Amino acid sequence: MTDDDRTVPPADASTDAAAPGADPVPEEVSYEGQFYPARPARLRPRARLRDRLWQRKAKQPGSPTGDNPDYVSWLVDESMLADATTFARQFAGQGSMWQNPYAAPDPRAAIDKAAVWFTAYPISMITKAGGTFLGTLGDEDLWSAFESIGITAIHTGPVKRAGGITGWETTPSVDGHFDRISTQFDDMFGTEDEFRAMCEVAAAHNGLVIDDIVPGHTGKGADFRLAEMKVGDYPGIYHMVEIPKDDWGLLPVVPKGRDSVNLDEAAERRLTDAGYIVGEMQRVIFFEPGVKETNWSTTAAVLGPDGEEHRWVYLHYFKEGQPSLNWLDPTFAGMRLVIGDALHSLGDLGSGALRLDANGFLGVEKNATGGPAWSEGHPLSEAANQLIASMVRKVGGFTFQELNLTIDDIKNTAERGADLSYDFVNRPAYHHAMATGDTEFLRLTMRTAQAMGVDTVSLVHALQNHDEMTYELVHFATLHAAEPFTFRRKEILGADLAVLIRAELTERLAGESGPYNALFTTNGIASTTASIIAASLGFDDLSALTAENIEAIKRAHLLLAMYNAWQPGVFALSGWDLVGALPLERKQVAALIADGDTRWIHRGAYDLLGFQPDATESTSKMPKAPALYGSLAEQLADESSFASQLRAILAARARHGLATAQQLDIPAVSNKGMLVMVHRLAESDQVTVLNFANTTVSGSVRSDHLRPGSTVIDMITSAPVGEVDDLHSLYVVLQPHEGRSLLVVPPVD
């Protein structure tokens, strides 16, 4: 049998390269493949394109309780754990599972596949008339616009069913569809066939699709309801502990009409002292008095098929409707659920990569000294992330993580976990630079990450996403709280530095300076990129913006795009960035922000291609956000528009391979508004010079990595602009919020 014979599937086999019996699709040989030829080439996953998911059992008549076998059977059919078992069996014992290297993260291989990402948010996208979110994302005209700009991947965001199940009925999502309850797609977003078609259109335009899995939690769907009933392995999915009836007195009363209630600190201590739970965590994310005071909640009494009533205490790092998964239960049910979900996205649907959401909170351990439980930076999180990421690489995909933890944690997880990490360290720092016109804190964070061994190429550098402008500054506020840092010519402890930066961001971007922005608990500021810039520029009334004001916002917005794009790593931006969206008025989303989740003000609907110019809301009823730049169709016809200038920025980046370069230096600057980054390209060096100040600045750019006599060329115009002098420096003049990307070509010896 020849090699060709071995890779040709039978006529009735799947066409998925990552699925059983598939033919491999080799990519060009990498450095790794050249020097380790025994390793198989990477494969590109393709959708199996099966006819349909198996038929679901219809809702049955009868009581939705544990003593009704039909109800329990229906829940099992709806559960993600049952689906995961079915998906996993399709891959077991197949030779295709051994065709890809998987042990170590490979950020450059991931970036070679997709270097510029569009991050969508399903409920905020205005679709084609009568179309769905997924159908619109698969639109040929939209992908032609993306390809023209330089966008090579879309991250769909969460599109599968989310929220909960109560009785026979589903309940809405409590966290923007990040509380997944099913492997099926939510009807409001589209179908599996539309997802597969979108993947095919993306591939035709040299792009790929990035899907989501959530290794940290689910919603209160069928899996959680079966766990409450103590059915099979389902309790093993979650961090949940059954409380015997004799100790129900330790639990608070669950109000009528509720299925659970959050524990206050006193109840948390009682249960900890009784040996049921590990107790207090290192922090309470989304803390809200009277709503979420601890990370633990208790269920009401639930009747199980065994005829007994059960009450449980369960962990949720996030909201009460997001029970946390247990990665070290003897059944390994949580692990099985997550891996099956990943295989479905990659092997069956055709996505090429996955975002790991909430993956930094996969381990929890009691503190032997009586302090808060160990719940962040736990080795179990690192082990679980390695397992997930390795499985994804094993079937030909890659992963990225959104891990808002310390630089130490990002470094540790990057060694064996996800291929790429979201840049939560420098994101608040560049917002601080914009707000203050001073890059010192940004230079501090970048140098700290570099000194600790975090390679810039392994990071996803992003503009706006669905979350708030995060300013928790976890690195400084927690693990390095007592460590001294030098800032503004003085020594300051990490904890105090975090407090200072948060205060300055709050003062300049919210309150009287930016009344249209809003604080989001203790996490950050709900805002769009455009509204952060507007507050930084002193525009306190968005309804009174002039054409000159809008031009100033656009110029600063492009500067932030240059910062994120003109350095190694992935560059990501959103629909809100592309149209220049502004926040909604609070009254427009009053019901959504009633529980304190102010992020809804920056999630307004946007229309990328002018699909429905007269629409006032998305299909999901999100009000349309005011937009400064217009649709992509309009912008790409105007060379001075945001999208057209972004196209030139990304073209220069792609032309010179900046995305996979090596960052050498973040040198000192002669003006506090300047930021300089020096990078090593394949045959030359590159210098990014940015002015975060709203005034003209000038000064020398000096780095020992710059070779005297080198010719300096503007990468946008391709025109020579100077030469590196004998002091390893070059002189630049920058207008307000101007950026330059300079190619430094060494002299011929």
UniProtKB/TrEMBL annotation:
<protein>
    <submittedName>
        <fullName>Maltose alpha-D-glucosyltransferase</fullName>
    </submittedName>
</protein>
<feature type="region of interest" description="Disordered">
    <location>
        <begin position="1"/>
        <end position="37"/>
    </location>
</feature>
<dbReference type="InterPro" id="IPR017853">
    <property type="entry name" value="GH"/>
</dbReference>
<feature type="compositionally biased region" description="Low complexity">
    <location>
        <begin position="9"/>
        <end position="24"/>
    </location>
</feature>
<dbReference type="InterPro" id="IPR012665">
    <property type="entry name" value="Trehalose_synth"/>
</dbReference>
